[in-house]
Amino acid sequence: MICILMGVSGCGKSTLGAFLSEKLGWPLHEGDDFHPQENIEKMARGEPLTDQDRLPWLLKLHDIIVSERSSGSDALVTCSALKRQYRQILLHGSSPDQDIWPPIPDVFFILLHGDHDLLYQRLVARRGHYMKADLLSSQFDVLELPSNDENVLSLDVRRSIADMATEMTADGFLLVRLKEKRPALSCFNFLLT
Questions:
Q1: For 87-145, how does the pLDDT look when each residue is reduced to its tens digit (9 = 90+)?
Q2: Contact by Cβ (8 Å): 46, 134
Q3: Which distant-in-sequence residues (6+ apart) come within 8 Å of 81 by Cβ?
Q4: For the chain, what percentages of helix, strand and coil (3-state, to nearest 5) are there?
Q5: Which whole-number Å values give the CA distances from 147 to 59, 84, 108, in the listed order?
Q6: CA–CA separation, 133 and 124 (whole Å)
Q7: Which end of the chain has less neighbouring CB within 10 Å, N or C?
Q8: CA 98/CA 135 separation, integer angstroms
Q9: pLDDT digits (tens, 9 = 90+) for 53-75
Q10: Are 174 and 168 in contact (CB under 8 A)?
Q11: Measured over all CA atoms, what is the biggest interatomic distance in the chain, rounded to whole angstroms?
Q12: Which residues contact 41 (CB under 8 A, 6 or more apart)?
């Protein structure tokens, strides 16, 4: 199973990903680590990325997802995945030549959502990251919320990381899917320890 933690900058993708990676023992592929240097420099200058800028990055993440799925591994991937087209590229590679491709049964999107003001304050307080807080509005401008047919669970970022991890399991989202792969798995109580 692959879980793609998605949302605008400052929503907590990396923090939740690190928490889940530690608790589940799954590898975490941090999307920011795969940006081409040109993208990093552009964002550091306060310039929003274009679709063309994002394509090589999305294709790298697609390759990671394919590799993890091919090996039968579980993994976490962080990626803003702002547009439906980007999510299609993550799943299917290259720009899709049709509007909607079917979801992949063992790949799930976890949307971390919050309001602009909260996330802006997080970005202002964040140190050592190239993404400028002033770019947040450009991300909200292009954000296309996933529809139910995209294998998505939405989490409110006002909650704690532990609460979000619990919500992922309390409603059965991950638990049911993991039981399908590992029938002996009975609970996720270890997430709370």
A1: 999 999 876 555 666 678 789 999 999 998 988 888 888 776 666 667 788 889 999 99
A2: yes
A3: 4, 6, 87, 90, 109
A4: 50, 10, 35
A5: 22, 9, 12
A6: 6
A7: C
A8: 30
A9: 999 999 999 999 999 999 998 99
A10: yes
A11: 50
A12: none
Q: For residue 89, give both structure tokens.
A: 């590229």
Torsion of CA 157, 160, 161, 163, to 10 degrees: -100
Q: Pick from 182, 168, 121: which is nearest to 4 by CA?
A: 168
Q: Count CA atoms within 13 Å of residue 189 on its CB side.
A: 2
The runs of H, that is alpha helices, within the chain are 13-24, 37-44, 51-70, 84-92, 116-125, 136-142, 161-170, 173-181
